[in-house]
Amino acid sequence: MIFIIVLVVVVVLVVIVISIYNKMVRLRNRIENAWAQIDVQLKRRWNLIPNLVETVKGYASHERETLEAVIAARNAATTAQGPAAQAQSENMLTGALRQLFAVSEAYPELKANDNFRDLQEELTATEGRIAYARQLYNDTVLKYNNSIQTFPGVMMAGPMRFNAREYFEADDESRGNVSVQF
Length: 182
What we know:
Helix content is 80%, strand content 0%. By secondary structure, the protein is mostly helical. The protein has a single domain (31-169), classed as LemA-like domain (de novo design (two linked rop proteins), Up-down Bundle). It is rod-shaped, with a radius of gyration of 24 Å.
């Protein structure tokens, strides 16, 4: 009788451990998938930027500094690694794009250009997709971090090398208004 009770307790504990482990693995995989979705949208954004810059060049060639800032920010964003570095470089790119769109306000013929409007709309739609992908990623990171930092997951996370993940966060600079001077 005691053997059966001990066996049942051991089996229940093994099932609990397996269940917790599988949950942490599923959440870790969801984080990887969410990061891949961010990456897809960022690459889409990066591919739109050269077309946008070329369109603006034709109308606002003396805004060279702004165009160069957009290109430099795009290049930095394409080489960033990890959520923190990626978030920082994407924040710089967002700021540069805001400046570019603010500059475009001074050129009515540019704003009327169909190609520019289409690119601007496509970029705006992509920004929405990026925001959604970031939110999904951060929500998944929250669930994962909670699962490895709360009991009973915390007892298994360390020995099984489940480490906390970083959030994809905007910095204070990118949250502010863009100032444009002519």
